[in-house]
UniProtKB/TrEMBL annotation:
PROSITE patterns: FHA_DOMAIN (PS50006). Residues 99-150 form the FHA domain. Residues 1-15, 48-72 have a biased composition (Low complexity). Residues 16-30 have a biased composition (Polar residues). Signal peptide: none annotated. Residues 1-74 are annotated as: Disordered. This is FHA domain-containing protein. It comes from Candidatus Barnesiella excrementipullorum.
Length: 174
């Protein structure tokens, strides 16, 4: 910090380092802390943290910008996810709270009935605290979010741009 000027000299404006604007180190991940001492269970087998694609998902980038005083998100018209899309198999799943994904049971049987690697009751979609989640239901071939295998029964948040793998099918969250 520069030496302070005497009271008789005029105040001059000092350049602001954009990396530490407002005293906050920029471009650092934000680690939200749960209220009431409860720890979130994001359901990833590797690190129990929400999966993050390189550079972060759209929702995480917006959260990072919002948590930094004096900075505004550069994202325009951010929208909440509404569907999972598997272009390779031509499957579109409209997100519904409590919906079950499965080959024999659930809300999307018509879309998965001819997918032999999807379990009869494979995963559940949820909507918790204004965030969409997916939980594996003990499926044979698993569920992954951005390459992280989910622990059975533990919800994992999903955001626009994330990749959700259901057995052998890759879906993009849109």
């Amino acid at each position: 910090m520069p030496a302070s000027k005497s009271a008789s000299s005029p105040a001059t404006s000092q350049p602001v380092n954009p990396q530490t604007a407002g005293g906050v180190q920029m471009n650092q991940p934000v680690n939200p802390q749960p209220v009431g001492g409860m720890q979130p269970n994001y359901g990833t087998a590797q690190n129990q943290q929400p999966p993050v694609a390189q550079g972060g998902s759209a929702g995480q980038q917006a959260a990072n910008a919002a948590a930094q005083p004096g900075m505004q998100s550069t994202m325009k018209n951010e929208v909440a996810p509404t569907r999972l899309v598997c272009r390779a198999a031509g499957i579109v799943l409209v997100l519904k709270d409590g919906a079950i994904i499965g080959r024999r049971n659930g809300d999307y049987v018509a879309q998965f009935s001819n997918q032999p690697y999807v379990s009869g009751t494979h995963a559940r979609i949820g909507y918790v605290m204004q965030s969409w989640t997916i939980s594996d239901l003990g499926s044979t071939n698993g569920t992954m979010v951005n390459g992280n295998a989910l622990v059975a029964g533990a919800p994992c948040p999903i955001s626009v741009g994330d990749t959700v793998r259901i057995a052998t099918l890759d879906f993009i969250v849109e």
